[in-house]
Amino acid sequence: xxxxxxxxxxxxxxxxxxxxxxxxxxxxxQRITKMGIFAAMTYNVVSQLNSGTTVSIAWYLFSARHGVSxxxxxxxxxxxxxxxxxxxxxNVVRPIxxxxxxxxTPRMEQLTLRVQNHFQLSRTxxxxxxAVATYAAACTCSACCFLMASVCSGVPILGR
Length: 160
Known about the structure:
Elements: H1 9-16, H2 28-35, H3 37-66, H4 76-92, H5 94-119, H6 123-153
Helix pairs in contact: 2-3, 3-4, 3-5, 3-6, 5-6
C-alpha cells in the first residue's frame, strides 16, 4: 500500500468526503448534475431528509442528555459540537444518498411529467414547481422529526 504524501491534508479531506474531483475530473455535485436535473432534484430531497433525520436524532440525544433544548440560551455551541459526529456520519453515508437518489430519479421525472400534464405547464415551470414542492415536503418532514424529538425527550423545542 502506498500513501500519497504529495497532496495536502485539505485535498485528502475533500477526497474522503466526496467533494474533490474524481478520476473523471468531476466532483460529486458535477456528477449528479451531469445525470440531469431530475437526479439533482432527487438528491436534494434525499439529502434534506437525511440531514433532517440526523439533526433530529442529535437533537433528541442532546435534549435527553442535558435536559435543555439546543435553542436554549448558551446551548447552540454545545449542540453544534455534539452534532459534529453526526455530520461526519452523514459524509460517510454520502454514497448511499447518491445511490438512493439515482434509484429514485425516474420517479422524480415521472412526478414532474404528471405535474406538467395536470397543470398544463411548460417543462421549466413544472420542474420548478416540483422542485419547490418536494423540497417543501422534505422540510416539513424534517420539522415533524424535530417535533417528535422534542416530544420524546420531554424538552420543549424553544428551550427551557
